[in-house]
Amino acid sequence: VMFTSCRILVPDENVAFDSKKSMEKVDRYVHYIPPVWRTEPHTEKVRQLFSSLFQYKVTGYLEELLSPIITPILLMFSLRHKSLDIVDFYQRFTVHVEGTTCSTSKSHN
Q1: Inter-residue contact 27 to 41 (CB < 8 Å)
Q2: Which of 5, 13, 99, 106 is most buried, with most CB under 10 Å away?
């Protein structure tokens, strides 16, 4: 099962990759791409920019699966020294207005 699922990530060696056609296909779905992506779709710079915006599905799935585990751990260690400030913020800015819990979310005229 693992081998079969990883095999789909390896591109076929017999298929030629046309970066211009692929970028035109992306443009049809996204409706906007930077001009440099159209003029130089084959460059490393465009590949890096594209990869920073559009990640592999596997990466997205892994992030979604691991985030409920990793996020509390990170918050526990990185926000431990700020916990009193967070509690103080909620004590000072909590108001009881129907539909809101924080005074900063209340509209001021």
Answers
A1: no
A2: 106
pLDDT of residue 51: 83
Helix residue ranges, H only, the chain? 2-7, 19-30, 35-39, 44-53, 57-78, 83-93
C-alpha of 52 from chain center: 9
- CA 106 to chain CA mean position, Å: 29
Lookup: tokens for 99:
């539909």
Whose tokens are 């916990």? That residue is 83
CB 106 within 8 A of CB 100: yes
3-state secondary structure of 93: helix
Looking at residue 99, its pLDDT comes to 63
**CA end-to-end distance (rounded Å), the chain:** 61
Mean pLDDT of successive 10-residue stretches along the chain, which has 109 residues: 75 76 85 84 87 82 92 86 87 71 57
Q: Hey, how many other C-beta atoms are within 10 angstroms of the C-beta on 48? A: 9
